[in-house]
């Protein structure tokens, strides 16, 4: 994506099912779990670079011994920083105590971070700021082992404010309004309740307080706690939690908006936000990694018992399609094919834009995430060309000479690496004066491969704000003096805000929205903007279930092509000599390419939870009232 879009988070959970000695013997180190966590987090760095955090739990320790460790960082390279801290500390201890080297029991007793249960997180915030306090995992401490709660999630709730109010209604006094704290305190509240209940039961059965503690831990019904806590949640989430004594869970929203995958054998249980992370780090095949089903929680009891339990009734599955288009790594077997299909399916529109003149067209892509859809586009273009050659040969088979046949077969689809991101330049971009010129050079171009008679087709994953296209890419492409620049977006037009984990909560930032406004103005239809506002305003105090997305009226007046053409016009400027065209994927084709991820609210306004309609209304009102704020 040429626009920097802050998005996503990644979770990583590992539970070692065997005693630590086993890993020392088999893999040469009792720090096996930490090493795996490092890899799992690094392999998800694409999901978040605002911050990273790690927590670990040692099972079965004696009172007085530390059993929970946590490190968080919001430094420039947060994952590196977290593991540098962990490494330093471990090496310090091992250096000071050479006798620990082969003594796993001593390592576990004396060195932090080593343990049997781990939770990691990489963050791009969608709520609050990027302070260290906002970095996951969050920790709710207690002197009772089983009441310690550690939480990390890839999530965004549309109703955090309401959830926060609920806590206050319960008499609580949360010390901050971070969304993760709110969710954690909610789970914490029901955890406390469950513990109380179990304690009463134990008491009735004649257990002493001390005896009751492990019995409570054993009997804790995680599914019940989660079901109570999740009742009013409205959002997209994959929430991972650990309890101090060693239970763990990962719980996914009922529409399956946010992703969560797991793997299990007799040594480990592993959860991550992306499948290939688990495949690579544990060297296991595609089929052995499964999805946590929507509305379900994977529950790992301290005993090692693993179960999948339904927490909430699943709704229609609307897994986020942006995961497939852009966020998740394309190394996933399915995602790789899906991205290629996105490229393939858009070829007809591309051919139309270049009058099928493939001889005078160079195909390229904007690095790096669009590379896979580029391969798909080019394969489809090759098929098209072959078909054309076929037809020609069949039609002219009587007159064809060896030379013309050779000439014909030599014709190829022209592909070049035209745009190269010059990442280093970004750090200079500070001052406002001459900023535009600097920004223009964020992308470098390859000279000498484009002729003035050529079309230049560039595929990108998606176009959000269009700023980089306007300020840099199109300007730099124009220096190559093509006849026409065709920008191809493998995603449809982004028309509506996200409220489920992508930090895209403002309408006026979206180039499609600005284009629609411009068209409304041009055609003297701007009164529709006022009408939409009035309708949104009237719904302000409605229950979420009753709110309708009226913002669709802004787009309803126009065909997608009209909006695309307007976007092209807005991204071009008088000094650009080439004709600029923009093509977006059709929503129907997106669904054909990515059939398992039908969540498309940012393209269609079709939100999978009632809170989504409230958010899009709020976003519109924020725009209309000139408020620069997130809409949830
Ligand atoms: N992208 C995410 O999943 C963010 C998680 C959470 N909402 C935060 O801001 O910390």
Characterization of the model:
The chain is α+β, with helices and mostly antiparallel strands. 40% of the residues lie in helices and 17% in strands. The strands form 4 sheets. Strands 3-2-4-1-10-9-11 form a 7-stranded antiparallel sheet, with helices on one face. It has a 6-stranded antiparallel sheet with strand order 5-6-7-8-12-13, covered by helices on one side. Strand 9 (261-264) and strand 10 (268-272) form a beta hairpin. Helix 6 (179-204) crosses helix 8 (222-230). The model has no long low-confidence stretch (mean pLDDT 94). Glutamine (GLN) binds at residues 8-9, 123-127, 134, 153-156, 179-180, 501.
Could you give a quick summary of the protein structure above?
By secondary structure, the protein is an alpha+beta fold. Helix content is 40%, strand content 17%.
Features:
six-stranded antiparallel β-sheet, seven-stranded antiparallel β-sheet, Amidophosphoribosyltransferase, PRTase_dom, PRTase-like, GATase_2_dom, alpha+beta, 17% strand, binds glutamine, 23 helices, 632 residues, 40% helix, globular
